[in-house]
Amino acid sequence: MMHEYESYFNFSAHILKSYPETSPWDLTPEIFSVRPKQTAPCLDFPDSLKPAALEQAKKSKLNPFHFMCGRNPFVLDTPPPPDATIVVAASGAVPPLMPWPISDDVQYEFVEELHAGECGMVYRIRAGQDARVLKLYIGHDAPARFRTEANAYAYISSHNVTSVVPQCFGWTEGDDLLKRIRGCPSRLLTLLSERDPKALKGLILEDLTGAQCLSVHNISLDVGEMALRALHRLHSAYILHKKPEKDNVLVFPETKRVVWIGFSHAICQDSVTRQALLAELAEGWAFIYQRLIPDGFIGWEPGPDAADPRTLVDDVAPAPIQPTHPRPSKPTITEEAIVILASYPDINLFSWDPPIFHLTPGPRRDHEYDTDEFLEAIKTQHRTLTFNPFGKWYGPCPCRVETIDIITENSDEWCAYDLPPRIQQLPTETDIQFVEYLKHSSNHPLFRVRIGSAERLLKIVIAVSRVPTLRSIYWADRPLQFSMNWRGKKNNAPCKPRFITERDAYSHIMHYGACAAGAVPQCYGWIELSRTHVDNANAAIRQAYVDEPPPWLVFPVFEDGSPSTAIVLEYLAESEAITLDNITPSRADIALRSLTRVHGSYVLHNDITNRNNMQLIRGRGGAPDRVVVVDFDHARVSSWKRAWPSRVGFYDEFVALWIHYYSWMIPMQRTFCKAEKHPHAITL
């Protein structure tokens, strides 16, 4: 069974296959952002934010809430399929547009001038009892523009899409009609005297009295959707408008009718491609949902020098992780989503070719336009409602689906794989020189040690307890022996010690290459600690607490008599936690790629959003940054029990970290200017 679900994937390639014959609004499941919802985040913002946003827009020429309607669903994310290049020609010839009949029995009267420019003039006239619009073409290219628009209206009539354009009653040429119009304006008469009357051509169109040009004053989510649906109707007649902009869209506020005008640059069937039609739909989506609706929200009417939000984003995806996997060619959106989601973690999400669009969001530069006044308003909003208005700045995680059953019902819930060998055990008598006590990670002390000539990180697992003077009611008097992850396990099953948890995790990680890929610190094995090791470890701890009792000490044995154990890891001298000060989009991407390497080892970290569990190693001398996943004492591996972890667990953890970085940390960094280099606060 396949559920209907809302997908955040970009499926523009699927839209392209049947566009314009199939409406994107009729596809199931519904494509995210094809119909932006009333729950667009900014629409719920308090009115107090609008003046601050308006003032910033006036100063910076950029609406800070341009992202409020989500991500453009029509931007083509993959190369077009071979069969989607050229639109299939409709059968039969399109009947040409006929001339408008002029009768001696009809009285023609000039009503008003609607538009006058270098390229044409538009007048409202009356033919008997009927109001009409006369559009005249002037200028050196008038014949070409007339033929183009007349041809477009012929296609419109032939394909029965007249409801989304003014009705065209025919064409006229020469000055016969103008001579019959009473009250013809002097400017038009002067024009006629300067030109060959026989070369004058025009169209007779429906009178659209009461219509308004689309603007920030009449735009709404409903009107925006109607405008895009109307554009699709034009595309279904194989007409490429070529000028999808607000001045070419008219709205009837009373009836909510939307029509497109201005076809003097249109391209019709013989030359149009599916890609061009879909690209124009994407352009229409952008000017409606990234400009008009956000501008209307804050009450801003931008001038021609306003910044285009699309120029502030680079959404070019980096190369896929090797080895690559060709994106599945499936007949439906649902089937393609199932293949991608239900094959994780066996197939790395970053290895699909072409890449999953927006899995690596391009960096945004619009924070460079922020003013101190606007950021202060955002901070106040965040402190008052604990909701960051920039939370949707980078859009939704593209792998998210609302109905998780699409994974569980269409794949093996558990991952089948070869069980790896255990990591090596070092001899207990191994000489370990304790160089420095570093810190505690959860319940585990970390030491910089020297084994032979190599510096290593020694993580002593579990056999740690607080000294009696610092015990609290929340801690047992005995050593903390068990993985918290397994407390309260069903059917009173025995708990799994943290050491075994981490040892098994590293066995998987080493075997399946996550350490070799640099996603996890190298593991050099594990060791049972001798009494000498324990004494030296405690001496290093006490040395770090000269003026106060140490809060932790290493115990030589567990409560059941088994010896203390430690894992020997790569020492990362200059590692640091990823914080609001150092997070960047590129580092977030590296971290997520590291997590997929861990998942590809069939290890679920299970504590991934803890701030200390992703460590950054800055690139030096031109080397790239590295982000490693650490602390696997909460981890789950599939070999323990078939019930843990499931594919859904891997999927949920990836989505959680993506949201943590792109929907929380990076927006928070922008809000509170917590970056190392944060070029905001323009002075205007």
TrEMBL record:
Highest taxon above the source species: Eukaryota
PANTHER family assigned to the protein according to its UniProt record, in alphabetical order: SERINE/THREONINE-PROTEIN KINASE YRZF-RELATED (PTHR37171), SERINE_THREONINE-PROTEIN KINASE YRZF-RELATED (PTHR37171:SF1)
Protein's name in the database: Protein kinase domain-containing protein
Organism encoding this protein: Trametes cubensis
